[in-house]
Amino acid sequence: MLLDGILGAVPYLAVAVCLWHFSNIGVIAGLILGQFHVWWRHTMVLGWETPTVVRWLCLLLFITTPEQHWLHHQKTNLGFGDIFTFFELPARTWMRWLRFLRFHLRSCAETRVST
Fold it and tell me: Which residues, 6+ apart, have CB-to-CB distance to 12 below 8 Å?
């Protein structure tokens, strides 16, 4: 589980390194808010329930409660609607493009080596 958490943080840390030049305070604030986001979303594992008033406020402000997020981990279509189906086509297109690019770069490198 620890490895999963570390690997999940790697993309955020890579972006933080790239953006540090523009705003180190913004990067630190973003990482802190990201950590609060993780704590808020995963309190269901501890058995915590969102109080009714907070749940109502979250509904009003379109904020996902930990219960909704946990449902996403269990059954993705119930947790956030059909968002994963919505993003499936762009993700598949992106993967095809990356595979094409990898194949193209490999064939270019092989052509250079053989000449």
Answer: 31, 34
- DSSP lists the bridge partners of residue 109 as none
pLDDT digits 0-9 by tens, 58-110? 888 877 788 877 776 677 655 555 555 656 777 788 888 888 988 888 888 77
User: And the tokens for 20?
Assistant: 């540090």
Give the count of beta carbons closer than 10 Å to the beta carbon of residue 16: 17
Question: Which residue's entry shows tokens 């690019």?
Answer: 101
The residue among 36, 39, 20 whose CA lies nearest residue 28 is 20
pTM of the prediction? 0.45
Distance, in Å, from the CA atom of 90 to the CA atom of 109, rounded to the nearest integer, reads 28
Structure tokens at 71: 């449902």
Mean pLDDT over each residue of the chain, to the nearest integer: 78
Domain boundaries along the sequence of the chain: 1-41, 48-79, 82-115
